[in-house]
């Protein structure tokens, strides 16, 4: 492998060529599309990752190849910044420009533009680590990425099959090694050890709960969770994996996994859920989780990201109080898709500040950093809790005056380690929920009692050009097409607890319509009316949308 940045090689290495007629965009979750369109994108992402690392004086950058909850034939890629966060937003444009550059001279020109704009020293070192999910297209795409890393002279280290959050964890560990802020051992084993040890401390002395059934969506979460449980004695946590087949083609996310359960509001294929059982589902790259159960009447009940945020905020606020450091400001960050009842619960029952930001984890993450302890979750189950350096310092240095306070301190410390603070993480979030339920000795019903979700509906409307939809107020209001918001408002006003908003998806070629209201029938009616409005007034394509 060359260890220099080789512009002529960049120009001439055209095995992975751009597919004519395809326009790529680094969207909400990086590049994501049909796998066969991604060869050149991977190559260019390799170059970009190397440039980003050089810009940051050789700090290690991560590259994750995954399409998360998308169908198996899709794939995608996203970059991870040195502290394990998503790529800085200002670089997303470079990613898009590179991906759309033609082979040869035009690619070299875009590279040169980035180098000039960012004043990158090409002689600086570059280090990139990468991993992939279980999709059959990954090995080929990994090779394309490696060729981009090679022509850029990056020190490249492949970590093989990993969950997305594991790669984020590894990146942070590498970059913080040897500092006061060291995050852990940068290996899969280090990750398992850190989480399992913290979990054992967090539930010490409490009786174990019943078995938790985990639907892994036939994705990477399955083998990783199977490995993880080896680090925990059975009397601490009992797990049973369902949908753990990563070898049969066509099964990934098929009728199972977190996205399926959340959007269909029903149990996944392969589950035999009965009253009293506890279930959760991961998505295809194990960065999202939702829980669910059936009540004594056999009714399916979802405990989604909003419910997890409420549970976590409640528990952490109480712990902070027990420790005696309630000067720390706890806040919760949501998006417009959060159920209205959850926002009401957080604001009026827990009395915790709530911010609403645009869709996409990067927005939530940055907003959560504004609090001492920031809890953020998308309704679909992607989220985590961030502790500011000052908060961690306070928690780690406070001296206990009573045994009860000491116990609260130990527990809060353990909670900060159970949580993967780099990004939403299904395994870590599962442990956080289990920590809280075990401490309270709660089943899912008790957790669910905090508030009752308003019935809600999410509809996709396909239109000729979704870019005409422009929003404001954290995506809750349309600015364009002109006049549409007023018409939506007129419908909403007719429903008790009615709320509806419309925005273009950042990951699919569709417009999303969200509606909630006091009853199921009113919700469906509202969703129907707003969807038809969008379809009729903004270039609907295909059959008009209709509710079930
Ligand atoms: C309503 C919804 O669930 N939207 C999802 C979806 O974004 P859209 O921009 O709505 O397509 O995919 C994102 C990436 O996974 C996720 O962050 C987001 O929450
Ligand atoms: Mg995911």
Explain the overall architecture:
It is globular, with a radius of gyration of 23 Å. Helix 2 (39-55) runs antiparallel to helix 3 (92-100), helix 2 (39-55) packs across helix 5 (138-151) and helix 17 packs antiparallel against helix 18. It is an alpha/beta fold and 548 residues long. The mean pLDDT is 95. The chain contains 18 helices and 19 strands. The protein starts with 6 loop residues before the first helix and ends in an 11-residue tail after the last helix. The protein binds 2-acetamido-2-deoxy-1-O-phosphono-alpha-D-glucopyranose (GN1) and magnesium ion. Residues 28-29, 68, 337, 359-361, 378, 380, 382, 505-508, 512 line the site of 2-acetamido-2-deoxy-1-O-phosphono-alpha-D-glucopyranose.
Which structural class fits the helix and strand makeup?
alpha/beta
- Bound compounds, please? 2-acetamido-2-deoxy-1-O-phosphono-alpha-D-glucopyranose, magnesium ion
Mean pLDDT: 95
Low-confidence stretches are none
Biggest sheet: strand arrangement: 1-3-2-4-5
Helix content: 25-40%
- Beta-strand percentage? 15-25%
Tell me the span between the first and last alpha carbons.
57 Å
The biggest sheet amounts to: 5 strands, mixed
Number of strands: 19
Shape: globular
Count of DSSP-assigned helices: 18
Gyration radius, rounded: 23 Å
């Amino acid at each position: 492998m060359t260890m220099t940045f080789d512009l002529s090689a960049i120009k001439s290495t055209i095995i992975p060529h751009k597919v004519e007629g395809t326009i790529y965009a680094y969207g909400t979750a990086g590049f994501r599309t049909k796998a066969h369109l991604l060869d050149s994108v991977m190559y260019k992402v390799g170059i970009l990752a190397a440039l980003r690392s050089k810009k940051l004086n050789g700090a290690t950058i991560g590259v994750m190849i995954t399409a998360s909850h998308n169908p198996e034939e899709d794939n995608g890629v996203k970059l991870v910044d040195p502290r394990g966060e998503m790529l800085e937003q200002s670089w997303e444009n470079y990613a898009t420009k590179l991906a759309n550059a033609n082979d040869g001279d035009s690619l070299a020109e875009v590279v040169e533009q980035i180098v000039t704009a960012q004043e990158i020293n090409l002689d600086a070192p570059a280090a990139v680590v990468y991993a992939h999910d279980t999709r059959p297209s990954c090995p080929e795409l990994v090779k394309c990425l490696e060729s981009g890393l090679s022509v850029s002279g990056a020190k490249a280290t492949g970590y093989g099959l990993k969950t997305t959050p594991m790669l984020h964890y590894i990146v942070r560990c590498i970059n913080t090694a040897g500092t006061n802020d060291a995050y852990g051992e940068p290996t899969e084993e280090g990750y398992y050890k850190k989480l399992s040890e913290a979990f054992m401390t967090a539930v010490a002395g409490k009786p174990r709960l019943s078995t938790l059934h985990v639907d892994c969506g036939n994705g990477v979460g399955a083998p990783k969770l199977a490995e993880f449980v080896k680090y925990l004695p059975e009397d601490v946590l009992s797990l049973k994996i369902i949908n753990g087949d990563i070898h049969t083609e066509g099964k990934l996310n098929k009728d199972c996994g977190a996205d399926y359960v959340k959007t269909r509001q029903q149990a996944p294929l392969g589950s035999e859920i009965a009253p009293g059982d506890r279930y959760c589902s991961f998505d295809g790259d194990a960065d999202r989780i939702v829980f669910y159960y059936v009540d004594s009447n056999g009714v399916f009940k979802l405990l989604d990201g909003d419910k997890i945020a409420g549970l976590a905020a409640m528990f952490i606020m109480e712990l902070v109080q027990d420790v005696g450091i309630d000067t720390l400001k706890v806040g919760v960050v949501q998006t417009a898709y959060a159920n209205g009842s959850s926002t009401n619960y957080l604001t009026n029952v827990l009395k915790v500040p709530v911010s609403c930001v645009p869709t996409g984890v990067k927005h939530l993450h940055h907003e959560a950093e504004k609090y001492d302890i920031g809890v953020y979750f998308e309704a679909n189950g992607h989220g985590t809790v961030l502790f500011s350096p000052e908060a961690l310092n306070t928690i780690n240095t406070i001296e206990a005056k009573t045994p009860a306070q000491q116990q609260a301190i130990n527990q809060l410390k353990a909670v900060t380690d159970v949580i993967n603070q780099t990004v939403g993480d299904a395994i870590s979030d599962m442990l956080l929920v289990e920590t809280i339920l075990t401490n309270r000795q709660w089943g899912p019903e008790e957790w669910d009692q905090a508030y009752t979700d308003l019935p809600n509906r999410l509809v996709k409307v396909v239109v000729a050009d979704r870019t005409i939809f422009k929003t404001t107020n954290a995506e809750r209001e349309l600015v364009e097409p002109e006049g549409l918001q007023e018409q939506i408002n007129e419908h909403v006003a007719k429903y008790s607890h009615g709320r509806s908003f419309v925005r273009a998806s950042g990951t699919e070629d569709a417009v999303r319509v969200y509606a909630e209201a006091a009853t199921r029938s009113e919700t469906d009616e509202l969703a129907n009316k707003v969807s038809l409005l969008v379809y009729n007034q903004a270039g609907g394509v295909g059959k008009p949308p209709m509710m079930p």
